[in-house]
Amino acid sequence: MSSINTYSGSYAIDASHSELGFVARHAMVTKVRGSFTEFTGTASSEENLQNAEIKVDIDVKSVDTRNKDRDAHLISDDFFDAENHPKITFASTEVTAKDDATLSVTGDLTIRGVTKSVTIDFDFTGEVVDPWGQTRVGFEGSTTINRKDFGLTWNTTLDNGGVLVSEKITLNFDISAVKQ
């Protein structure tokens, strides 16, 4: 495998072979997983990550937790307020190599109109030329955010003093991108 520093060019996320997911603790005892099914993203870089740039736009209404009532609640004003904030966006501000196979991406994450800087480490999972002649690269990463930092403050207290939805949310990324 080549070093991530040797890659250059423009890439587009293949949404049909990628996942942007999240995990939240529910009722303090279990985890609920979800994802967004509609998103676009691009990445471009010169060799040695010079002028590297990553941008992602997520359609909030595409949230899918395998429960229609919960999904409707998530896009309501209690959480994402999709009516007024239809997109979640990410724009990198710095992309560096931690080593030959790990990217550290810092950028501005905007949820519900609130922008915060986050850093995500991505493991490079490989490069392949697919059966259609396209060069495809893969990356996996995750980070944890506090949802309250982004104005997602709705909650309810449980009888035992805990809360229904955790403040800590883990964001998971499995990315397949095609060279343009």
Automatic annotation (TrEMBL):
<dbReference type="InterPro" id="IPR007372">
    <property type="entry name" value="Lipid/polyisoprenoid-bd_YceI"/>
</dbReference>
<dbReference type="InterPro" id="IPR036761">
    <property type="entry name" value="TTHA0802/YceI-like_sf"/>
</dbReference>
<protein>
    <recommendedName>
        <fullName>Lipid/polyisoprenoid-binding YceI-like domain-containing protein</fullName>
    </recommendedName>
</protein>
<feature type="domain" description="Lipid/polyisoprenoid-binding YceI-like">
    <location>
        <begin position="10"/>
        <end position="178"/>
    </location>
</feature>
<comment type="similarity">
    <text>Belongs to the UPF0312 family.</text>
</comment>
<dbReference type="Pfam" id="PF04264">
    <property type="entry name" value="YceI"/>
</dbReference>
